[in-house]
Amino acid sequence: MSKKWKITVPGSTANLGPGFDSIGLSLSLYLQLTVTLQDEWEIIHLSEDLPKKFEIEDHLIYKIANETAKRYNKVMPACRIEMTSELPFARGIGSSAAAIVAGIEIANLLCDLQLTVQDKLNLSSQFEGHPDNATASVLGGLTISSMDDEGNVDTIHIHDLDASFVLFIPDVKLKTAEARNVLPDTFKRPYAVQASAGANMLAAALVLKDYERIGKYMESDLFHEPFRANLVPYYHEIRKEAKKAGAYGTALSGAGPTMISIIPESIGQQFVAKMEELFPTHKIILTKPDQHGVHVEEISSVSKL
């Protein structure tokens, strides 16, 4: 008999404006995997947006599972993975972080690593390079995090934001490396002070759940959005029209090109209808924060023929 597991990982948005590389919010959009032990590796993509052709050795989940096992002096056993995803690649909604979190869970299950939540936060943030998306996918809800030079993550975790979020997903990709290449290497002190103040106010407003201020400071970023705006289709128009339609505020989702608005729960459907009318080239998705983070369920045992 061979065990079979279902792993569900929420996607996420990062930054929310000036919370650069430190603020993450889980979304109710998911990467789901069914994992079964078998003699050879097999990864099957079941969603249309996932690539059909790839080498197993190049697959991010395969690489993360093996690297996680290696860190604990274990040998990763082969398995069959069937994947579905609601997270389009290179759109700024945490597809790589979700895959990293999934890879860690696979190694944890199949190698019996008995990782703690803190272990998972540290590992996923180290692999991702920053703790924003990774911590949100592990924990759910909203996370405000830092990671020291040794890769240790400290996270403030906030649940139950009483608001909805709307994603504006264009039909173009923007890889994080490309989006980082347009950022300046240094800021002058007065500019950095102003940028940091916006980040501090955003974090405080999120802790207080002061939605008007959250929206205001989401739109105050000076760290990255002014430099990335020209890479994002309809960046200025989306911010303007979303505010007119009742959004508290709008920002890039991660590095973009997706944008995200925070809105009152009461206007969700009418807001989406208006945005679909104004931006027909974008996929408009109404969502809520996921409150659970990564979830693992043993679903059955299957006979090996």
From TrEMBL:
EC nos: 2.7.1.39
Chain ranges of the GHMP kinase N-terminal domain: 60-141
Alphabetized InterPro entries for the sequence: GHMP_kinase_C_dom, GHMP_kinase_C_sf, GHMP_kinase_N_dom, Homoserine_kinase, Ribosomal_Su5_D2-typ_SF, Ribsml_uS5_D2-typ_fold_subgr
Principal location: cytoplasm
GO cellular component: cytoplasm
A single MF term (Gene Ontology): homoserine kinase activity
Broad enzyme group: transferase
A Gene Ontology biological process term: threonine biosynthetic process
Subcellular location per the Swiss-Prot or TrEMBL entry: Cytoplasm
Keywords: Amino-acid biosynthesis, ATP-binding, Cytoplasm, Kinase, Nucleotide-binding, Threonine biosynthesis, Transferase
GHMP kinase C-terminal domain boundaries: 203-280
Keyword Amino-acid biosynthesis among record annotations: yes
Pfam families linked to this entry: GHMP_kinases_C, GHMP_kinases_N
Superkingdom of the organism of origin: Bacteria
Catalytic reactions on record: L-homoserine + ATP = O-phospho-L-homoserine + ADP + H(+)
Pathway(s) where this gene product acts: Amino-acid biosynthesis; L-threonine biosynthesis; L-threonine from L-aspartate: step 4/5
PANTHER family: HOMOSERINE KINASE, HOMOSERINE/4-DIPHOSPHOCYTIDYL-2-C-METHYL-D-ERYTHRITOL KINASE
Family note: Belongs to the GHMP kinase family. Homoserine kinase subfamily.
Role summary: Catalyzes the ATP-dependent phosphorylation of L-homoserine to L-homoserine phosphate.
Protein name (database record): Homoserine kinase
Native source species: Ureibacillus terrenus
